[in-house]
Design a protein that fits this description.
Elements (H helix, E strand, L loop, with lengths): L3 H30 L3 E9 L11 E4 L2 E11 L6 E9 L9 E7 L4 E7 L13 E4 L3 H26 L2 H27 L1 H31 L2 H31 L1 H27 L2 H14 L2
Parallel strand pairs: 1-7, 2-6, 5-7
Antiparallel strand pairs: 1-4, 2-3, 3-4, 5-6
Length: 301
């Protein structure tokens, strides 16, 4: 049987335990109640907030700074969802900051990430609206839709451009091209040997030309420029002397031109006399004997 004193000790223990429990709960709840927060709002128009729940995180530069407090549909515009968030008091939210929805892993849940913020901009006052930004997925989706629309337009233009006549012309052009290629193959086959020989000749000539250029380069490097210049000067002097000699000869010929002409005239007359004498002797050989008799008579006693 439990004594009265034991009952008293048990009652005191329970009371003390309850007091400590209430103090602990008060500390935990009080820290939450007295923790100051700044409230902001975000309006997402024509965007689905599926996967976003009350209590989801709000991050800024990868740091959790608050949570989602409420999700409500705008009473004045049912296409807009108003998201109420709370962040730590004093968190600098700039006027150009944007709030985008980001996926959390592969669970399908979403959280809010604040991006941007120029330090030169002013801080946004609590209770104001933060600009809603497009997520990377939304940007990719919009780009994909734009690309799909452009591709569809291009395909329609191609379909309108390539009518039956155009397609027929293209087919004819392709057929003509194939025939030309076949003819070219036949020509190459018929002249393959000649082409190979020509290519070999070109290679040989190129090799010989390279050797010639190398030889010229070697000769140029070994050439004594001073000796070459002296040789050129000697040649110039020789040409000058030869020109002077020709001038002297020309002057001498001009000086003796009259004598030469007179000598030639006398030679011509002598030749004429000799010819005349030869003719007379051939016609009358007895003249020789007559001349001798006359000479003996004239010179005799």
């Amino acid at each position: 049987m439990v004594s009265k004193s034991q009952k008293i000790r048990l009652g005191v223990f329970i009371i003390v335990a309850l007091i400590f429990l209430f103090i602990l709960i008060g500390i935990i709840v009080g820290s939450k109640l007295f923790d100051k927060k700044d409230i902001y709002f975000i309006a997402y128009k024509d965007q689905s907030v599926s996967g976003m729940n009350v209590g989801s995180a709000v991050q800024y530069h990868g740091i959790r700074i608050g949570r989602i407090e409420e999700l409500n549909i705008d009473k004045d515009d049912v296409t807009t969802v108003i998201v109420e968030i709370s962040v730590k008091a004093g968190t600098p939210i700039k006027t150009d900051v944007k709030a985008v929805m980001a996926a959390v892993g592969i669970t399908g849940l979403k959280q809010i990430e604040l991006v941007g913020g120029d330090p030169r901009e002013e801080n946004l006052k609590p209770g104001s609206y933060i600009q809603a930004g497009e997520s990377t997925l939304d940007i990719i989706t919009d780009k994909a839709q734009d690309i799909a629309a452009k591709v569809d337009e291009i395909l329609r233009n191609i379909a309108n451009t390539f009518d039956e006549r155009t397609q027929q012309n293209i087919q004819e052009a392709v057929a003509n091209t194939n025939n030309s290629l076949k003819n070219l193959d036949l020509i190459l086959d018929d002249n393959r040997e000649g082409l190979n020989e020509s290519i070999q000749n070109i290679a040989r000539i190129s090799s010989e030309l390279a050797n010639l250029l190398s030889t010229i380069n070697d000769v140029t490097e070994q050439l004594d420029l001073d000796q070459f210049n002296m040789t050129v000067r000697n040649i110039n002097q020789s040409v000058s002397d030869l020109t002077s000699a020709f001038n002297n000869i020309n002057y001498t010929v001009l000086e003796s031109q009259d004598d030469v002409i007179e000598t030639i005239r006398l030679l011509k007359e002598s030749m004429q006399n000799i010819n005349e004498f030869s003719r007379m002797i051939s016609e009358n050989p007895s003249l020789l004997f007559k001349s001798r008799s006359a000479d003996s008579y004239q010179g005799g006693p």
